[in-house]
Each structure stands twice: as structure tokens, then as C-alpha cells.
Amino acid sequence: MKKNIIVVLIVLLACYVIQSETIDRIVAKIGRGVILNSELDKRYQELIATGMAKEGISREELLNDMIEKELILIKARESEIEVDKYMVKKMAEQELEELRKKFDNELEFRKELKKETGLTVTELKDYYEKLITEQKLRESVIADQITNQIHVTDAEIEEYYNENKSEIPIREASDKIGMILIKIEPSKATKEKLKKEIYEIKDMLNKGAVFSELAKKYSDCPSGVNGGDLGYVEKGIMVKPFEEAAFKLEQGEISNLVETEFGYHLILLQEKKDDQIRISHILKKLEPSEQDINTRKELIEEIHTRIKNGEDFGKLAREFSQDDSSSANGGIIGEFSEAKYPELFSSYLKNLDYGEITEVIQEGDNLYIFNKIEAISARPYTYKELYNQLNDKVHYQKQIELYDRWIEALKAKTYIEIFL
């Protein structure tokens, strides 16, 4: 099984051509480059192994695809496009690490790799880097020459819609569903109380208190037991506000209050080392108090009672619901067939009659009231409902047309000879 993992992985990634003593023949010349018969055979086996081969695909079609890929690489080199070598190295290392996980230890991994492919770990890493580099070069050229040149107008989308109306599917019978969402979240008073606590800690630090000791005593982060020490970190690891504040600090400096989704932080920069910094922090976690929880529950119960007493669901949704995408529309979240009700709430909705509302439902820190508003008969999808899909189709159509013209232009000005 582990042998197969190595073999299949190599085939999946591409056709690694190991030079042998047998004479290989050239099947195509592109500029100064060539495609060998063995490369064509390997490419075909790759498609078979991955199940990507189209039924009855010919060697001519496959060779043409390989020629196009080589033409794009030539264009990338001519345009002097550069790929982030650090990113490529990281991606290659990640691929290697994923492969290593399939084996019990490093020795077994290296032995099987050498036995099944003839490659050392270094050679495989180099191979990964070559493949990733070529792929990134092609992506950059396609983005610059094709994708970024395409602009789709509403008039083009509407024209496509009108021309293809006969193929538009029927939307099955469904139910219009409304929702009011109230979030259990910290109140302004709770936030102010927490800020006061963090400012008091900063004041103690300014007066000479030891950061690690205050972290052990006051921090709500698990790192508090270690004096708030988070170890060495590099950019891209921490949440943005925290990272931006941390990397601006000088060694030994303590930040002012930093707010993130987790709460309020004080950050100490302990040491800088290349592109990494070693930091400690004190966190006061931002959570709703018992009073905040009770206040939010009382609010949604009051809304529920008002609906039961005859007040308009849509009006109350506009006034109180914290779901930005639906509140302005009177709480309407969409039309759903019974089989496609929102999974978490399906059992509640199935038991409702039209015009009825659920009891208050709590999921995590969110409180909900749902309303099964009315039945919607089967009908064709509207232009508005299909807009995003139509936009994608028109964009893809224009991309294919532009790509074909661009490739033909590349072929016209590049020396190509086929010997298949």
C-alpha cells in the first residue's frame, strides 16, 4: 500500500522523466525545446491513473495540450515573470511533509522513495519545486494575458439569459422562510469594564511590575501559566490587528491595548530573530456577562411575544434582527424546498404551518425565531436569481474564446514542428 502511495503521487503530480540508456525519440519541437515520446507516454499514463483521461483521447490531442503548456512557459520567460521562490520552497516542503506522514518513520520513507522512484528526498523536493514554479508561471501569464483582460457587462449577461431561456431549469415548489437573529454578545458596559482592567494592568507594568508575573495572575489565555510566552512567530500566523501591533514593537517594548476578536491584549516583544519575533501577551477575553446573556434572551422573548400578539414579523426583523443579509428584506432568508431547509433548523421548520413561528431557538451564542411565511409554486428561475451563475458562464465563455485566439497567435510566431 505504501509503495502505491509513492507511485501514484509521482504520477499525479506529473511525468517525471528519468533518463535511461534507451534512445528516446522527439515527437515535437517548440522553439528551442522538445517533447519526447516518453514524456507523451508518461502524460497519458498520468491521465489514466487520475481518471482524467477523456474517452478516446488521442495522442495528437494530448501532444497539442503539452505544446500549449510549453508555449505559455516560453511566454512567461519572455515576459520575465518571477515566482516567489520562498513560497515555492514552502509549498514543496508541505508536499514532502504530507508524503512523509504516510510512513512510520523517516528511514522507511527514504527507502521506499528510492526503491520505487529512484529519487532521493532532495531530488523529489527539487522536482516539486520545478513543477510548482512552472504551474505558478503559467497561472501568472494566464491571469495577465487572459483573465485580467475580460470584462463582462450586464447587457452581455442579459443577452445570454434571453438566448438560453429555454434551457433554464424549473425551480421546484418551495417555502418562503423568514428569520430573526439576536446575537448573545458583550454589552458596551462589559467592554468598558474589561478595558478598565487591561488599562490597570498596563499601569502596573509602567510602574515596574514584571510582565510574566502579571500574565500568570491576570491573563485569560492558556499561555498565562508560562508568563504569557507565545514563542517565536512569523508574519501570517496571528490575527491581523495582533500581528500588526506586535511587529511594530521594539525589543523590550510593551504595546498599548490591542483589540482582536478574542478580546483585549497587551503584547511584549521579547526578541527579534531574522523574520521571526518572540512575543508574550496578556489577554482579557471578551465574553458576554451573565447580565448580557439574560438581556439578549429577554429581548428575543419580547420579540416572540409581540409577533404572537399580531405584530408584523417583517417589521420586527428590520428593527431588531442582526443578520445583515436578511434584516433589510424583512428577515426573508430565501425559498427552500423541505429537503433543502437549513440543516440545523430543519426539524423545527418541518413542524410549522404557514404563517407560524418557531419558539426561540438557541445555537451557540445565537438566538433565532423562524417564520414559515408562505408556499411558493414551482416556477422558472428569474434572471436575478441566476445572475451570479450567468455571469460565471459568460466570463468562462469569453475566457475560452480569448485563450484560443491568444494561443493561436503564440503558435503563429513560434517555431513548432511535430513528428508524431
Q: Number of helical runs?
A: 15
String of helices and strands: HEEHHHHHHEEHHEHEEEHHHEHEEEHE
Helix fraction? 40-55%
Query: By helix and strand content, what is the structural category?
Result: alpha+beta
Amount of beta strand: 15-25%
In the CATH scheme, what's the topology name of the largest domain? Triger factor/SurA peptide-binding fold
Terminal Cα span:
37 Å
The CATH architecture classification of the largest domain is: Orthogonal Bundle
Describe this structure in words.
With 420 residues, this protein is of the alpha+beta class. The protein has three domains: 2-149 and 407-418, Triger factor/SurA peptide-binding fold, CATH 1.10.4030.10; 171-184 and 290-380, Chitinase A, domain 3 (Roll), CATH 3.10.50; 188-285, Chitinase A, domain 3. It has 15 helices and 13 strands. It has helices spanning 2-13, 37-50, 59-78, 85-100, 106-117, 121-145, 154-163, 188-206, 211-218, 240-248, 290-308, 313-320, 324-327, 346-350, 383-412; strands at 26-30, 33-36, 170-171, 174-183, 229-234, 258-260, 263-273, 276-285, 332-336, 361-363, 366-376, 379-380, 416-418. The strands form four sheets. Strands 9-4-11-10 form a four-stranded antiparallel β-sheet. Strands 5-8-7-6 form a four-stranded antiparallel β-sheet, with helices on both faces. It has a three-stranded antiparallel β-sheet with strand order 2-1-13. The longest helix is centred in the last third of the chain and has 30 residues, at 383-412. It is flat. It starts with a helix and ends with a strand. Residues 11-22 have low confidence and may be disordered.
